[in-house]
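Ligand-bound model needed. magnesium ion.
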Amino acid sequence: MKQESIATFAARLDTAAHTAQAIAQFAEAEGIGEHEAYAIQAASIARRLARGERRTGVKMGFTSRAKMVQMGVHDMIWGRLTDAMAEADGAPVSLSRFVHPRVEPELAFLLNKPLPAHASLPEALEAVAAVAPALEIIDSRFADFRFTLGDVVADNASSSGYVIGPWQDPRQDLSNLGLALSINGAIRQVGSTAGILGNPLRSLVAAARLSAAAGEPLEAGWLVMAGGATAAESLAVGQHVLLEMQGLGRVEFTCTE
Ligand code: OOG
Ligand code: MG
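Prediction:
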């Protein structure tokens, strides 16, 4: 695929995100493979950085069976996070910047040193300064929230927003923490961090490998979002969203216009 077409698709996705206007899927029709899709993702994030956004880390996608089944995609993917996606814990989140937002329960890692490609599980834990319960707001730029693997990779793995709860000591067993996602006081999803690759630390190891392979090894100060532990829930104005995670506390936000 020509550099020119990569730039064209990157601009199309970036504009769709910027204006909250859905676009049609294109990866299958254009014969876009995984490698080209990641090139489009990189180019669309480069446009955001050129507008002054700052890189804050990496998100993992499809690290749980629940997410793969919900979206019909069966490969692990990753995307790039920027500071413009951050929303404050407990604060109102305006839904006006999204097309059709959804929320999912995640775990976030904060790194205190770089993490090279071939880190072991204990080495990965060594690089973690803190962990937090987290909510990811995903928003596909594709109509009806439907996409192929190539589309969703190009679309930065539907990255759109993230809310990080209170940071906690990572030196505890993170492999099977119960969690409940409630909307307006009603529990909508229950699960466990075990749903994330059997242990969310495996997602961090995978993030280190994939990000380094793209020439961007994980950096000190970066966040890594481990991926949704359960299926995602649709968001609407007026909703209060709460995630409670065993031993790690809670994180929440309210949806406004
Ligand atoms: C793609 C993003 C997947 C996760 O945590 O699995 C993801 C999507 O579902 O739109 O963020
Ligand atoms: Mg996610």
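The CA atoms of residues 113 and 126 lie 9 Å apart.
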